[in-house]
Amino acid sequence: MTFKQSTSPEVIGICTSQSLRRFDLQLLRSLSRQYEIAQWEYCQNPDEAIDLDIAIATLHEYLQTCKGSVHLVGHGIAGLVGWLYAKKYPEQVRSLTLLSVGVNLATSWHSHYYEQRQLMGCSRETMLMRTAFYLFGYRDQAMLSWLANLLKQDLDNSFVPHSLYAPIYIAPTPIAVPMLVCGALDDYVIGGENAYQKWRLYLKDRDRLWLSDQGKHFFHYSQWQTVSNQIRSFWNSLALNQAVSIKQQIEFR
After folding, report:
1. Do the domain assignments include residue 164?
2. Chain segment 19-31, per-residue pLDDT in tens
3. Cβ neighbours of 117 (radius 10 Å)
4. How confident is the model over 140-196, as pLDDT tens digits?
5. Averaged pLDDT for residues 224-245
6. Which one of 14, 39, 51, 139 is at 20 to 30 Å from 158 when CA atoms are compared?
């Protein structure tokens, strides 16, 4: 499954995990039916230090080749990269959509995995199987084994700013760009509705918070159509507000 990537995108899907990028594709494919879209992927070099500033600089280098500002969409750590970028370069960002990102912006399935590794005395393989179940909800052992292998690849090869002994915390502050925060009520990683409601302390009037009844941490994969509708509704509201503002400016003159 793939989608036609645009050379002059209006929308950029941020990806920081080559092994898990497949879970973003159905949503991006749906959005690409109405918008010019591309997926930007940050590939971590095994010999490089994991540095958020390098990821942001690399994203900025790419976005400078795009025509005008763009909508950014990111899940988990990719959402963190998008938020940090939008904070630093708001003029480049038309809007920011965060999927499964909590008010501790650095919270991810990786941080919970490492937390559980410290609390429980089971093997890495067993913990990855448990994590796969809590992330996706499948009970079939073959499916869980396949997912656990993907998670292992993600831990070993992707841009993960956490480690077993060094979890990080990044608190949000209000940013200038319009923002849509989406999550699932049964997402054990973020902490469900109460955790997501904390976002309201940081949302502006034009920002939105939307929660799916189900779907867990990768809700945008299983609920891609509903998530796509919510994102397009948000973008349409921004375009309408911009049109009204322009009309009011013309009438004032």
Report:
1. no
2. 999 999 999 999 9
3. 16
4. 999 999 999 999 999 888 877 655 555 677 888 889 999 999 999 999 899 989 999
5. 87
6. 139
Query: What pLDDT sits at residue 60?
Result: 96
What's the domain range around 197? Answer: 11-106+169-248
Q: 233: pLDDT confidence band, cut at 50, 70 and 90?
A: very high
- pTM (2 decimals)? 0.91
pLDDT in tens, 83-132: 999 999 999 999 999 999 999 998 899 888 888 888 887 888 999 999 99
Total tally of structural domains belonging to the chain = 2
Q: Does 188 reside within a domain? A: yes
Are 144 and 24 part of one and the same domain? no
Do 177 and 69 belong to one domain? Answer: yes
Instruction: Enumerate the β-bridge partners of residue 72.
Output: 12, 96
Residue 236 in domain = yes
Look at residue 155 in the predicted model and tell me its pLDDT: 87
